[in-house]
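Lecture 7, part B: from sequences to assemblies.

Below are the input chains for today's worked example.
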Amino acid sequence: MDNQMNTSENLYGVGALFKDPNKIVKVVEKLVELGYKHWDVHSSYPLHGIPKRMRLKWSPLGYVALILGLTGTLTGLFLTWWTMSVDYPLTIGGKPWFSFPAFVPVLFELTVLLASVGTAIVMLFIIFKFPNNQHPLHDTEYMKKVSVDHFGVFIEAKDELFELEKVKSLFNDFGADEIIEIAYDRNEVAFKPKVFDVKFISFLVVIAIITSSVAYLFNNKILYFPPFDFMLNQFRLGPQESSTFFADGFGMRKPPAGTVARNQEFYPFKNKPDEAGMKLVNPLLATKENLELGRNKFNTFCSPCHGWRGEGDSRLNGQFPNPPSLHSEKVRNWTDGRIYHVIMEGQNVMPSYASQLTEKERWAVILYIRSLQRALNAKQEDIQ
Amino acid sequence: MIQENLVINYQRKPLPEKLFKVGLLLLVVGFVGVVLAYISNSARASFNLLVVFTWIASIGVGSMFFIGIEYLTGAVWSVPFRRVAEITASFVLVLPILAIPILSSIHSLYHWSHTEAVQVDQILKNKSAYLNQTFFIVRLIITLLLWFLFYYLFTSISRKQDKSFDQSLTKKNTIVSAVFMPVFAVTLTFFAIDWLMSLEPHWYSTIFGVYYFAGSFLAALGVFTFVSISLNEKGFLVDGLGSEHYYSMGALIFAFTNFWAYIAFSQFMLIWYANLPEETFWFINRGVGSWLYFSIGIIFVKFIVPYILLLPQPAKMDPLRLKIAALWVLFAHYYDLFWVVMPTYSNGGVPFGWMELVFPVFAVGLLIVLFYILSKNVNLVPIGDPKLKRGLEFHL
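Predicted structure of the full complex, as structure tokens:
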């Protein structure tokens, strides 16, 4: 009590203590009738019916929770949509990139998380004014009695209708057992949040430095010393390492002679470009779909060297020799099968693209090359 | 020994004759419709009767679950209304009468009941130790006998208390409830698997029992809330019951609406994600033709509408809104069961005609008449219950 400043300008309010809960009901009704706004009732157990008589409004916290919950839902929706279908689309189990049912658990969890944690934070920081844990009523005689065997009514001095003598006589009229004036606590008035304290901030900085240096040391240094380096020594071969298991020293095995891997077609025209040119026929029709597929694959695999339009204008800035144009007389006169052979086997510097493209895609690329050739070397009758 | 402070001022009033007349009218009209339906298309009629059968079973056994929960948790707010749940629990008594016509047309309902079909189907052959007619009927009889037994125990002990005011009877019913809970869990799961899941004998979903339970308790709460509020408003119960009791009912409906949505979505998402053909076909059947719109409708009917209706706190205290929500969840459960049962009958489109309207009329009429008859000689408030006074003084 000694750190309270009992001057009238520091008055927080006046409290009245009653032994009989029925008197409280009458006081409450009177205060409502007179139109006081900043007042409260204190009791050590719930007094049923008092909130109704006090005409307390519904707590707005429900709306806070609703808004925060909806924010969580929308955040979840954005997060799942952006990561799963725009930024890094992965096909999982053949599902579409935007598969809503898979996102519902995320939406649900984020809704619940934001609504509950957010409401708690709003309650603590805005309503309870955290980190201030002090209140003028704390540690007063009024609060001590109210939490044992009295019921209290308290009117704050900031109420418009508040007049010290009037309030006191009002309480006396209703037979208050005790009337207590309560002033602001000195600590309460001089309270500064610890967040801006230099000591507190430097404490946070020191903690941050210690934790990050421990994490750095552990991840970059300690993990490379025995016995923590067991993850580095595994039974596998790194790039360019020779095998001690196989006699020939190769880590990769070659397929046995005369076999073809599953789902891989056998190419009978190995080293026989002319035969391939004569015997192979493009099985695809020049439909829009096939040309789209061809364009897609051409732009992905061919255009870095051959250029967007096959003119041999490489985008690789001389890192690789530029290939000749696909619009030369020679290539235009090649059959589809001859071009197919080049894709399968490679030519000069160009490697084989058999592993990058499926059979259908190869033929689609050829269709697209044909359409490029026709477009860039249009004949008179094409224009008409 | 009668304790003075426990005696409540309650006067038994008979329910109005009008209610009985309305119920009887609906029942007669519905019954004529049902008979006509059986004459014109007995297969379709049996599927509709199956919906009615499982719907009534839901309400009856769900009410028993409510009584059990009340005793086990020592809840006080629901004590003044418990008689309502005890009377609605009696709906299980009509189940054998409804089961007979369904069992007589078992071949048009359940594919596994055809022995020649089972012979050529390896999966059904493997399941035939469980899915055969004899064991099916045995399971039904055991289930119904257990339900009748617990219905009898709950109500007779509770009614005895009206006269004797004996507090130890509450203890006795608590023990009955504790025994009832596991029995309820097992019987309801078997009931759901037998009567609903086995309509598609190749399909299985391990959560299906819980799915049916969620809907059942919701339907029981719907009846309980609607009847309790109506009776209380007309003054058939005791004074002092009001918005704080209603709030608890609204909160329960709201909670179990969410629970149903959680379970229904869990069932859907796991099947959708795993994408196994032996599980997905059940949902694919419900996405064909007009069934697709019916399936999307269930999200709104059973989850979104009651969710929004009951979300604000004051909405759970408003008797009118609560009554609407209660009837709505009752309708939603019928819709749900229709969605579970009917695609087996008509694959490709929702069957909807006079027949689908006649059966709910019949069911509602039956329930009203039953409620009237069974509440005739009973106090509508358990006046001997030691928790009644506390229940009347219940505050949030």
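Note for the exam: The longest helix of chain A spans residues 100-127. Keep this in mind when comparing with the next example.
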